[in-house]
Specification:
Residues 251-256 have low confidence and may be disordered. The protein has 256 residues and is α/β, with parallel strands linked by helices. The protein starts with a strand and ends with a strand. The longest helix is centred in the first third of the chain and has 18 residues, at 10-27. Helix 1 (10-27) runs antiparallel to helix 10 and helix 7 packs across helix 9 (191-205). Strands 2, 5, 6, 7, 8, 9, 10, 11 and 12 form a 9-stranded mixed beta sheet that branches. A 3-stranded mixed beta sheet has the order 1-3-4. The protein contains 10 helices and 12 strands. Helices cover 41% and strands 21% of the residues. Strand 10 and strand 11 form a beta hairpin.
């Protein structure tokens, strides 16, 4: 079970979950049940600069979620995750509290949503490598009554692919339409910011309001790569997320 070599900014992402998820559980304690969905779950363990950290599924595993759904497409990562869960909580795996899917998240979401009551508070953590998340998938999630969503937006992936006509289908699937072709940065802002904020505005149109603060993930050259942002249908979730992100991350910023 070799840990995944992750970027340093991965620590901020994991620290967000360590602080937010217990707060989510406390805020929903009056609900009959609550659920956690990790659409790009990874191998369970991350290695950052020589140190190992629990991945998102293992952070959520011991918390008071009635059911947890972990999806990982890569076979090697999936087997690693399964073994880590078997070591830590074999009972939850055996009794179905934890469900594992070695699949593309876009293709199994319907099956997962069928198992979650529409009124149940549900936390979705969607952390793809790039542009793998389809807009139609986000639309399905937004139809739920009680949704909190921590999502990676690969604005750098859009930047790389926008000039390539052969990639336009991918971009249209990512944004849900061809509106990305008309994106222009505001004066004083970058293309990276323009693409990220357009995506977030699309989410707001679905009723998923966005956090003020986000995590800006940068590479070793300090170039922005991704935005990690929180969206929700509930003001309480947004307040908690803003407080958590602002409290610890040096890479946070208030987007226009």
């Amino acid at each position: 079970m070799i840990p995944r070599i992750a970027h340093p900014w991965t620590i901020d992402k994991l620290r967000f979950l360590e602080k937010f998820l217990p707060a989510f559980v406390r805020a929903t304690k009056k609900a009959l049940n609550r659920f956690y969905v990790d659409g790009f779950a990874g191998p369970g363990i991350n290695e950052v600069e020589g140190r190992t950290y629990l991945g998102s599924p293992l952070i959520a595993l011991p918390l008071e979620f009635d059911r947890l759904f972990f999806v990982e497409k890569d076979r090697e990562n999936f087997e690693s995750l399964r073994k880590h869960i078997e070591e830590r909580d074999p009972v939850s795996l055996k009794k179905g509290r934890v469900e594992l899917y070695n699949a593309d998240f876009n293709t199994v979401l319907d099956k997962i949503l069928d198992k979650i009551p529409n009124q149940a508070p549900t936390m979705f953590f969607l952390d793809p490598e790039g542009l793998e998340l389809h807009w139609t998938t986000v639309e399905k999630i937004a139809e739920r009554k009680k949704v909190d969503l921590f999502i990676l937006i690969s604005a750098s992936g859009v930047l790389r692919n926008a000039p390539k006509r052969g990639s336009w289908e991918t971009l249209t699937r990512f944004f849900g339409d061809e509106s990305w072709k008309g994106i222009r940065p505001k004066p004083g802002h970058t293309w990276f910011e323009a693409y990220a904020e357009h995506y977030r505005n699309r989410m707001r149109e679905l009723g998923l309001e966005g956090s003020e603060y986000v995590i800006v993930a940068r590479n070793r050259k300090n170039t922005p790569m991704h935005i990690l942002a929180f969206h929700s249908k509930h003001k309480v979730g947004l307040k908690i997320a803003n407080d958590v992100i602002r409290s610890f991350s040096k890479q946070t910023r208030l987007l226009p």
